[in-house]
Design brief:
Number of strands: 10
Number of helices: 9
CATH superfamily of the largest domain: Periplasmic binding protein-like II
Shape: elongated
Structural class: alpha/beta
Distance between the termini: 84 Å
Largest sheet: 10 strands, mixed
Pfam family, one: PBP_like_2
Number of domains: 2
Keywords: Signal
InterPro entries: PBP_domain, Phosphate_ABC_transporter
Helix content: 25-40%
Protein name: PBP domain-containing protein
Organism: endosymbiont of Galathealinum brachiosum
CATH class of the largest domain: Alpha Beta
Length: 269
């Protein structure tokens, strides 16, 4: 039985072209799938993970992998990262100076802020009016609020700290407070409230920082720290950036945020 043998040079041609084909398809795939770390502020890690988990399912984001890095490189690091990648993460709204660096933000959620008290105040529920009288020093003893007879200690943060800035914005009476104790980091305030020195203190911060037993319920009080993504002007018309802005404003996203115990972004009329 006679069968045609394929000339050797044909084989070689076929072999070379298939290798060429393999390489080119590998190349085009690596171009199609861009990896973008999303780095920046610590407090926005969880909500950014939630955001990209759902945003990545959208057709426009199909050729991108967004990796939300849990290690914090701080708010400023997030702004810087947005020069290299599509997005960085913020821990508070951008200020005027930051916006002048050609940066824009997408607020994706607000972290609930709360007031907390030490273990021995005997008070766990007050009105907004009573809160005001504590911070204006009209009320100076927990006994005046039905608690233990002990002087109220005001534990605070430095003026530019993110949670304190948000609280002042939402409740201006907190602007002129002279604190007894100023703590410079989140964990320091948490530890102070838990310690015996903080037994009669009142403080504040992101609700998620504290055990629920320390939370002070304040009627009619509602405040949140806006967290978001930052992008550079050069990517303003990028389809992925535009889609992320739309997604952040969608009802789907607002429901997801609320279901995960965050506050949705404020609707700017």
């Amino acid at each position: 039985m006679h069968h045609h043998s394929i000339p050797r040079h044909q084989y070689r041609k076929f072999y070379i072209s298939s290798i060429f084909f393999l390489f080119s398809s590998m190349l085009s795939n690596s171009y199609a799938n861009e990896t973008h770390p999303v780095m920046g502020a610590g407090p926005s890690t969880t909500v950014a993970e939630l955001f990209f988990k759902h945003f990545s399912l959208k057709p426009v984001a199909q050729n991108y992998s967004f990796i939300v890095e849990s290690r914090s490189i701080k708010h400023a690091g997030g702004i810087k990262a947005s020069g290299e990648y599509l997005f960085g993460r913020t821990g508070r709204p951008l200020n005027k100076k930051e916006k002048e660096l050609n940066k824009h933000e997408i607020i994706i959620a607000r972290i609930p802020l709360s007031f907390v008290t030490g273990k021995n105040t005997g008070v766990n529920h007050i009105t907004l009016k009573q809160l005001k009288s504590i911070y204006s020093r009209k009320t100076t003893n927990w006994g005046q609020l039905g608690g233990n007879n002990s002087e109220i200690i005001l534990a605070g943060r430095e003026p530019t700290e993110a949670a304190y800035s948000a609280l002042k914005h939402d409740h201006p009476f907190l602007n002129q407070v002279a604190f007894d104790q100023i703590l410079t980091r989140d964990h320091q305030l948490v530890n102070f409230i838990k310690s015996t020195s903080g037994d009669y203190a009142i403080g504040f911060g992101a609700q998620s920082n504290f055990d629920t037993s320390y939370l002070l319920k304040v009627d009619d009080f509602n405040s949140g720290l806006s967290l978001g993504l930052v992008y550079d002007t050069k990517n303003m018309n990028h389809p992925v950036v535009k889609a992320a802005i739309d997604f952040s404003r969608s009802d789907t996203w607002r429901e997801l945020v609320t279901a995960h115990d965050f506050l949705p972004p404020e609707i700017h009329k």
